[in-house]
Amino acid sequence: MALPAAKGGVRALIFDFDGLILDTEVAIYDAWREMYAAHGFPLTLETWAQCVGSDFGHYDPQVELEQFVGRTLDWPALTDTRRKRVNEILADKQPMPGVRDRLREAQEHGLVCAVASSSSHRWVDGWIDRLDLRPFFSHVSCLEDTGKAKPDPSLFLHAAAALNVEPAEAIVLEDSLNGMRAAHAAGMRCIVVPCEVTKHLAFDGAWKHHRSLEEFTVPDLFV
């Protein structure tokens, strides 16, 4: 049975991808950390968290590593190695616990769903198809669509427009500070479900804060 939008004013759910739908953030961090270690330098979780959910506009690990080693590095080769390492780590990964259940509930209650990610379409769409999640999503917004990464609100606004809903009618699900800030800037409520890379952060101002997508149901959002 479809719930009316007037109940809680909700018509749409907009999901982040990395760290929320798939546990990619740990794999990406580990690959970068291993690269730093190979050059004799640490990459702490606190430092890395600056770019989680965004791009390298505020913190660029490539620039930092070159500053550490004092020379220009062969980034095409290093990037190829890093991407292969990420794919190795993610080879058998499945969606985060609760993802499929929440998406099914959204369908059952007449909500439309989208993804809004600071990553590329190649990355996000590839995984959505591989994980067989495409039927759940009416739209996917990625960095190429707006040219601006979170915490800029443009990705969430782009997704809402594609779903034909007002910002106040959409609830965002995020795992990062940059994502939460983008949701707030877009005028949307945000449920924060931190991943292993972001669980140490303080998400002050989150509409709701859960340790897992299994801790709530879609009907809970209408209470």
UniProtKB/TrEMBL annotation:
The keyword GTP-binding does not apply. InterPro entries: HAD-like_sf (IPR036412), HAD-SF_hydro_IA (IPR006439), HAD_2 (IPR041492), HAD_sf (IPR023214), PGP-like_dom2 (IPR023198). Pfam families: HAD_2. One of its GO terms (molecular function) is hydrolase activity. Keywords: Hydrolase. NCBIfam families: HAD-SF-IA-v3. This is HAD superfamily hydrolase (TIGR01509 family)/HAD superfamily hydrolase (TIGR01549 family).
